[in-house]
Design brief:
With about 60 residues, the protein is α+β, with helices and mostly antiparallel strands. It has a single domain, classed as Factor Xa Inhibitor, CATH 4.10.410.60. The chain has a three-stranded antiparallel beta sheet with strand order 1-2-3. A hairpin with a 5-residue loop joins strand 1 and strand 2. The protein is elongated. The relative contact order is 0.27.
Amino acid sequence: MKLKTRRAAAKRFSRTANGFMKSFKGGKSHLLSSKNRKRKRNLKKVNVIKSGKVFQNLSRLMPYK
């Protein structure tokens, strides 16, 4: 039986060429005046999930991605 992809996870995460998961960091949509420049700059970067429980759970949510 074919497994279904969780669409909410598929919209927020994607795989890299090496098989890791990548996502964008949250917290950059409002209340930016209280955050310093360095913090906002680091929120622009891509978040890479390489291993651990979070990676395993995402792999289960997106079996074919």
